[in-house]
Request: fold
Amino acid sequence: MRLRHIEVFQAIRQSGSVSGAAQLLHVSQPAVTKVLQHAELQLGFPLFLRVRGKLQATPEALELEREIAKVSESLQSVRRLAQNLRNNPGRTLRIGATPALALSLLPQLITSWLTRYPRSSCELSTHHTRELVQGLMMRELDVGLTLKQPDHPGLAVQTIATGTLVALAPGGFWPQSQADMPLALKDLAGTSLVGLSTDDPLSALLEHHLAVVDPPPRVRIAVQTYPLARALVEAGAGVAIVDPFTALGADPATTMIRPLAPALPMTLYALTRADETASHPLTTLLELVAARAGELVKQLDAT
Reply:
């Protein structure tokens, strides 16, 4: 079937008649009839039968409709991509990041970036990693910042910074004498945790290490983002294992931060399209992100 055949088929399915399809497609009824006849001639079987004045899809047509829906979805993606290519402003840098990184890293450094490029602008958005990948491939984003390394042949992945996960707890949860000491995972036995969704890139790593703790920590509240986990810890809901950027954004008057033993590694990645060379403004942005992330990691190590 040709694309025009598919358009006519879907229009008839939607309207139930040739005349209705013609109105939807803004063409004449004879034109719709001609395309339908040509499609049926090529296929070798009818697509519609007239039943009580309406065109009803044949069993063969219903089988085809499942695959046609996939084609239509792909066509929508092509149209969406074409529109993004046409409307993409050359001097606007579109930045996507997971919520934790957007809140902890971007606000301060974006001001510095805009100072360096006074004629440029930027769009900031928060997404989970899967959405960042989709946004990059659809050219809705120019760069994505995430703690998960995706496996996608169309993306270039750059390591921006490394660090370790930390335990964040309400103030007074641990004795002050232990505040600066690493927290052994076994000491989390029986602790009420604010846990991250299983979709989180680091949750599987954490779950693996906590599996040997007896009795195991109990996740009483599960959330989708690190900032929400931090807010719950600040409210006294329990302990959370979070990235250092999120932890350092917590109120030190109401929370405690302790490194873990053994250390659980964390990596900050920048995602870009593999078939493109980074622009100078984008390169500068990533340098600023790396510098800021490095400062925060060192700040945590010094506490």
The radius of gyration is 27 Å. The chain has three domains: 3-87, 92-162+267-302, 166-263. The chain has eleven helices and 13 strands.
